[in-house]
Write a structure and sequence with these properties.
With 307 residues, this protein is an alpha/beta fold. The chain is 38% helix and 17% strand. It has helices spanning 11-22, 34-40, 87-110, 145-157, 181-190, 209-221, 239-249, 260-267, 272-275, 283-287, 297-306, and strands at residues 2-6, 26-31, 49-53, 71-74, 117-123, 134-135, 166-172, 174-176, 203-204, 206-208, 227-231, 237-238, 279-280. The protein has a seven-stranded parallel β-sheet with strand order 3-2-1-4-5-7-11, with helices on both faces. Strands 6-13 form a two-stranded parallel sheet. Strands 8-10 form a two-stranded parallel ribbon. Strand 4 (71-74), helix 3 and strand 5 form a beta-alpha-beta unit. Helix 1 (11-22) crosses helix 6, helix 3 packs parallel to helix 4 and helix 7 packs across helix 11 (297-306). The longest helix has 24 residues, at 87-110.
Length: 307
């Protein structure tokens, strides 16, 4: 296959590129930062990889590079919890998903030799937050900002179906891997100052990065798969339990809670990402025949920390 990827230099995208390359596939990286992509994916190490500079929210010559690709994976998007949500930042969070996806769909529509599948990211934020409800792929959307972002993001991908391209939308949970959430939580635990964030009762719907990459490949390679799939492990846990398991894996206690106000001071409205949560089950994903390497969090953490 030849697979085009947006967001390829990110945490998940770079792992996907490594996996595709190891399996001998051809890769097209669409990037805003050409020099960064060349540093991460040097030609000497990635001979089957092509890098194309693009402006993700603008039509342009880059769109022609989609012609001849067998599949497209759309992982682009500004970080949700990287900084406080000013009005400008919220617009960037929305546009980096909605408009970027619209331009990618436009490129697919213009291609003479169209890809057969678009695998497009979304997030479990689609469902809103709850301490009591359980959500699966058939559940309704929430009514907060992140739910709105996810709805617009998913809607922007839908027109590819009208031109005969299979669409898979992955609602991604919190991705566990070295370089993601776990890395950010390591330091306080290593200093014997780790503990649950907020009440500890909020649900933590997670997925090991290798399972997420595996699910993307599963979606690319199985033509019978189309529609909405939750990219979460089948065993979500509460934040307090997760922090206990992380502490145990590090042989450290989990005893100093991080209060709500500390997270809110840092992230403002973006604190909702970690202070509230949702219990999400991947029923459609499991029904598709996908098999998880890490369905439970303890083995997942053990693998990540061993790396």
């Amino acid at each position: 296959m030849k697979v085009a990827i947006t967001g390829a230099t990110g945490f998940v995208g770079s792992r996907l590129v490594e996996r595709l390359h190891s399996e001998g596939e051809q890769i097209l990286v669409l990037t805003r930062n050409l020099e960064k992509a060349k540093r991460i994916f040097p030609n000497s190490a990635y001979p089957n990889l092509e890098i194309v500079a693009y402006q993700p929210k603008q039509s342009g010559a880059w769109q022609k590079s989609i012609d001849g690709c067998d599949g497209v994976v759309n992982l682009a998007g500004a970080g949700i919890a990287d900084e406080r949500w000013s009005a400008t930042r919220k617009q960037e969070i929305m546009d980096s998903r909605k408009v970027t996806t619209e331009k990618l769909v436009e490129a697919i529509a213009q291609a003479n030799s169209k890809p057969s599948v678009l695998v497009s990211g979304s997030a479990v934020g689609y469902y809103g937050t709850s301490e009591t409800a359980t959500f699966d792929e058939t559940s309704n959307s929430g009514n907060d900002f992140l739910a709105e972002v996810c709805r617009e993001w998913e809607t922007a991908a839908q027109p590819v179906k009208d031109i005969g391209v299979r669409l898979v939308i992955l609602r991604i949970g919190i991705v566990l891997g070295m370089g993601g959430t776990v890395s950010k939580m390591l330091t306080p635990f290593q200093l014997f100052a780790g503990g649950p964030i907020g009440s500890g009762r909020q649900w933590f719907s997670w997925v090991h990065i290798d399972d997420l990459v595996g699910l993307i490949l599963h979606s690319l390679r199985h033509p019978e798969i189309a529609g909405i799939f939750n990219a979460t492990a089948p065993n979500p846990i509460r934040m307090g339990e997760f922090c206990q398991d992380l502490g145990a894996a590090l042989n450290r206690p989990s005893w100093i809670p991080v209060p709500n106000f500390a997270i809110e001071l840092l992230l403002g409205d973006g604190a909702v990402v970690v202070l509230e949560g949702q219990k999400v089950l991947p029923r459609q994903t499991q029904a598709s025949g996908f098999e998880y390497q890490y369905p439970n969090v303890k083995p997942a953490l053990k693998n990540i920390l061993a790396s």
